[in-house]
Design a protein that fits this description.
The chain is an alpha+beta fold. It has 3 domains: 53 residues, Wheat Germ Agglutinin (Isolectin 2), domain 1; 43 residues, no CATH class; 69 residues, His-Me finger endonucleases (His-Me finger endonuclease fold). 35% of the residues lie in helices and 19% in strands. It has a 3-stranded antiparallel beta sheet, with no helix packed on it. This is Recombination endonuclease VII. Keywords: Endonuclease, Hydrolase, Nuclease. InterPro entries: Endonuclease_7 (IPR004211), Endonuclease_7_sf (IPR038563), His-Me_finger_sf (IPR044925).
Length: 228
Amino acid sequence: MAPINDDRDGLRRCRDCSEWKPLDQFCASSKRPDGRGSYCKPCFNERSKASYARRVKAKFDREVRLGRVVPDGHRFCPACDAVKPFEAFPRNRADASGYATYCKPCHNAKTRDTKDRLYGGNREYHLRQRYGVGEKEFQELLAEQGGVCAICGGANPQHLDHDHRTGWVRGILCFNCNGGLGQFRDSPMRLARAITYLRGTTWQRALIHPGVYQMCSPTRGRPPSRRF
């Protein structure tokens, strides 16, 4: 019997589905002069999946889980075994779809489990990742400060202050002092100007007699408004 001609005017017939298709719809193959194989891409993918399943079965004696078909704009979450729209998944630029493998609730739960397992909690993870120290080093530094804010002396400070230029930890501050340094952009010049400004616009107490003080107005600025 004469062999069946698989090529015709830039077309090729797939040996699995027997459909005539353009050559660019066939997988690349270095064994043929035109660089295209005998199976179209969909049929070649099915053959590859079947071959992989046979190898896994022979080597590990287990079945390969079949891929799940989901509608457009949706994704399957393997943690909760549910198909959800893309909006239910966090973004992930590393994935071809642009979304993470797990939906947002499952993603958050797995993230918490990972932080607990590797770092002992979210706070330890935060300190290690952002400042390079842990809760142990935090408590040691706080003890060196006497358990108070390094600036105002307030009790129970919880904010680890660091140099934004070098990343070095400087001390532990309360919320207001930490936020104040941030607003002044860690600039000694701005802080010095603020001190000069306050001294020039704030009323001062002047000792006029032992134990007697008088409030002196600032050298510049407007007096407080009065109601008549």
